[in-house]
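Entry 12.
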Amino acid sequence: MSRFLVDRDGETRVRLSEGMELTKTQSVLAVVGLVVLFAVPDITRLTGLSFQAIHRGILFGLAAVGLNLLLRHTELVSFGHAAFFGVGAYGAAVLASHFEVSSGLLLLLGGVLAATTIAVLIGYFVSGYLDIYFALLTLAFNQVLYAFVLQSGYFNYSDGLSVRPDGLNPPTLFGLQWTSTGYDLILYYFTVVVLVGSLLVMWKLVNSPFGRALDAIGQDRTRARFVGIPVEKYVWIAFVISGIYGGLAGGLFALLQLHVSPDPTLYAFVSGEILFMAILGGFGTLVGPVVGGVVLVYLLIQAPFYVEYYNAVTGLVLIGVVLFLPEGILGSVPKIGTGLARRRRDPGLLRDDIAAIGSSIRRGVTRAVTTVRIIVFGVN
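Predicted 3D structure (tokens):
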């Protein structure tokens, strides 16, 4: 079967497998993205960017890819995704600390299995709920897990657990004990391979009949049920898959940090950050959550101003994204490019845009002044 197709618009597509086709532009971008990912260690060394921050951002982005399955296709918002990220991290840490398992791959597998188990249990209870009830239930389960770990001596309370099996050296990777620098580098390349594989699996999944059924459920549950789709079962499966991605990211996070504690992994605020990453990068895209993860984590670690005023700046950025880039960074790029091309051909469109922006600003200022008058003076 030919790997190259030409659609009705004359655009060449590359077929990877049945149901998985890329346009020529998408193929080029995918190759460029792969090259950049594998070149990150060299890029950071030459530019002074933080290799550790980018690595952590990719891991949180991987968790956001799992959350994006619920957000984009079933239109369910989970405020408890940190539960799977944290359980994945703690699953690896428990094996290293209490059972002295030295293989990094076995630690990762243990974390994923632990997160999968929790996702199956929580998903059983929440899959039949909608909207705010689903969101609040996921948040509640998240906080129950957080409180349990925080107050448990087995998990060493708020101090957490080490992921160094012998108390000194990091776990082995591929049967070898690496130096500190070599360990970080090998783990990064392994993370990239896992990320690419996870994205391909997710892409195949959302373009399968199961993915289309999830879209139908997100659009109208009653109609989906009427045409024979087992709604609760499919939402449950999607929830478990989402949890597996979170657990995979959490297990890799444990291998990277070599220490796991409740606040950076299980706290509900982490769930909000993962959700924000998906929105920031573009929850209507496959790779957008990864971009959002790298951007947000890098700012958090590297920008002193951002760290000092984290909550305020994050809130302002979220407001800006919702108002001006509702489809996120990657989701807005094609529209921005098309819009700029149209405005180069017709300068009148640019003048209309400027006038519309000015009008919106005036309306916003008027509403703000009116609100302040009502709050302060009690008059309109």
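Annotation: The domain at 51-312 is CATH 1.10.3470 (ABC transporter involved in vitamin B12 uptake, BtuC). The chain has a mean pLDDT of 84.
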